[in-house]
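Researcher: I'd like a structural prediction for the single chain below. Treat it as a standalone chain; there are no partners to consider.
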Amino acid sequence: MTARAKPAICLMLGWVALLWVLEGVDLVTGNALDSFGIQPRDPAELVDVVPAAFLHFGFGHLAANTLPLLLLGFVAALRTGIRRFLAVVLLVILTSGIGVWLTAAPGSNTAGASGVIFGLFGYLLLRGFIERKLLDIGIGVLVGAVYGSIVWGVLPTDSQISWQGHLFGLIGGVVAAFVLRERPRSLTAGAPVRPVP
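Model: Treating it as a single chain, here is the predicted structure.
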């Protein structure tokens, strides 16, 4: 087990456990947490952009998101390290949530981790190509093969599903792959440098 694997596993298992606990609290409180979903174009709702990504409308909704979040999150955290992974997730949550706030249908209420899932999908898909790392290119190809069909979720085909959250989550992941890419290491002081002839 690599040094990054254990923290990545612990982080994702803890994250998923938190989502299930929150849904349990929502159930026993008569869906009181649903009010923290994003209702579009109300300035007071901007504070719900982050918490909405941790809430779901029922255990079926949560169950559908659990496995892809766990797998994609683990791979991303393992390959990038926890700090960069958390920066990626924050960027995706903000992009997805603000996109929903700006474009969702009037009177709608949006919550769920699917924006993060689409963001991680986009991030892992492109990261290897952007950073020119063969292993991560392979991971991107594998992620595309396994989860590529989710891209249909960015289309407005079902009024009960937030295609806006999916679309802007995907955009957030693509942006994160560029903005948070690993920079080449500069030469350290005192390191020998071969003169150019």
